[in-house]
Amino acid sequence: MKTLMLGNEAIARGAWEAGVRVATAYPGTPSTEVTEYIAQYKEIDAEWSVNEKVALEVAIGASVAGARAVCTMKHVGLNVAMDPLLSISYPGVNAGLVVVVADDPGQHSSQNEQDTRYFGMAGKLPVLEPSDSRECRDFMIRAFEISEEFDTPVIVRTTTRVAHAYGLLEPGGRMDVPLREYDSRFGKYMVAPAFSRRRRVVAEERLGKLREFAETTDLNIYENGSSDTCIITGSIAYQYCREVMPNAGFCKLGLSYPLPERKLKDFCGQHKKVFVVEELEPIFEQHLKALGVPVIGKAKVPVIGELSTEIVRKGLTDTAPEPVSTPFENLPVRPPVLCPGCHHRGPFYVMKKLKLKVAGDIGCYTLTASPPLSIMDTAICMGAGIGMAFGMQKARGKDFAGKSIAVIGDSTFWHSGMTGLVDIVYNRGITTVVILDNSITAMTGHQENPSSGRTLNGESAPALSFADFAKSIGIKHVREVDAFNLKELETVMREELAREEPSVIITKRTCILHPCAVRHFPLKVNPDLCKSCMKCLSIGCPAISFDGDKVKIDQVLCVGCELCAGICPFHAIEKQPRPGGGPA
Amino acid sequence: MKDTTNILIAAVGGQGALLASKILGAFATARGDDVKMSEIHGMAQRGGSVVTHVRFGEKVFSPTIEQGSADVLLAFEMLEAARHAAMLKPGGTVIVNTQTIAPLPVLTNEMPYPADIIGNLKKMNLRVWHTDALDLARRAGHVKTVNTVLIGMYARMTGDPAESWLKVLAENLPPKLYKVNQAAFTAGYNLSPPWTEQE
Q1: CB A274 within 8 A of CB A232
Q2: Considering the domain B5-104+125-198 in this protein, what is its CATH number?
Q3: What is the ipTM of this complex?
């Protein structure tokens, strides 16, 4: 029966049907659900790894030991995993090894728009690009076949509109793929130069074979159409083009690296006009131009942002559907905000009060860079804040270190913040580091991490302690504070910033969206006491608004965290008696 | 070829837009249509504007709706209705929950919440059906069922029997949530579109 599946669910289904035994990942939008769906298949040993590098290393180990393995990450996660990825290119695989990478054109939830196809080229690795959910499943199975046939890791690249789009497919059964023998071929997985120089030659020969494979594979589809125009495209761009120019000829590249050069030249030669429509970088376009094929690409479709049917229609046909005229202009924007009752609001409120320079990191708390908190100065990549705060101290001295702070979330700390902390201790830094511990990887939708006390499968696991870790590497000043106790937060921050030694402050509260979080009855503003000083608005809680006269608290949104009540100078924010009695 | 139906859902993160699109998609799948849908997860969901696209028909290529070609806009909040009304084709339908959720510039008193959104929507070349779905959801048993109230209104508009929708709801919801959603759906389904009353 045809089933409607999210692209990420279809990737998981494909992995399961392909007989995958081991799956690893670090969560990251838009890739996260792949591994959540995989975890539902009991035949697959799936884990949230501590970061993408470790995830890929675990998957490589599984492949060498004979199990088909899949490793999933978002595009910037691939940067973290590049060392093992490029290093395993020459050795190749034993059982199939597929790396699923989800790109985020348009930066819906990412710091950049890097194009993973380049990374396949850098690693001499084949790249498969599904364009809908059915292909997500199909291409996963094909990727494992290619991986084993050509002795190579394979990248399956999706984008947001493939990963987070639904489409229909007919689910199949699980293939019987037995565990292969442990691969003990002499030196195959040893990258010491003497071994690796030989594998270097093998990898180049492999690329040649893959080029020949590209010429004949049915992963690439050629449709002649009824017009003298053809479009070279792939991934989601194919779907937009099919809507815009249903009569054009199409070359849809399911295998986007390496390219079928002879076939492409021949196909383009049959058409008067050749468009190349690809999201992000002009990779197909430049390749075709280098082959001497005159094509029109980025001159008509932008290099920045995601494509869409309207962008492709405008670029290729210079037309647009008749719009309905709208009287709405200059509407207020609605950016994402920290939730009412969010753990992060207290610590950042205090940092703002103390006028600190804040080297931040990647997570929900990155939102504190925006008004009204406007407190975070930097967020570069996972784990960067700790090293950067130390670098700022090196540049500007100890006085500056007393007025600046590094802030990082729990999962991000284990991912790549802990090495920065070791660096500070080793190199005798005095940085103060705040770890925001809300017990879960929140931004990506509540994934377990090493301090959650649970694995991906919900099994109980050791909950790693930030305090024990910090003490074990020689940090003497480790403080744990309730994230909503503003008074104590301020005292502790002042004390630790004044110290000429490194220190770690752990702020604790469960993420308010987590089922275990405690929600209270909403608070109310006492209009007789409120002086409309607007101090409560400075914490950026979406439940608090000002209607031009008095401050109001939204009774649907408020979770009664009382942070606002704690900063109101007039004690105007009050608990309400719960209807029917009982504690508020 | 049967035309593709395009439904855009515009909401504020946390209002249940993803579940609503899942129900619409499941209904079209059960009917035998080709279906594609698109949504955005992650950072955008933290109280920001959320848009999901639902498309069904004989054969659907793109999972997203082209600007100016949506048949129906299901707006879970008034400002989001205004923000996305231009996605509709001329003569398209907007179903609006009259709830207002102040965005950041309004919360901080930098900008007013736009006045008379319903009146302005009515000036456009659209069919406008508005209701206080939050109130209906609350009466149905939970404020989080605004999404199901609006699905009920959409179902009423298309004329499909309530039973076939309730079957899809039952298949896509945890059993303990079915009853309250059934009540919310029925509350929406029992309303009448203003244009049928006039006609």
Answers
A1: yes
A2: 3.40.920.10
A3: 0.94
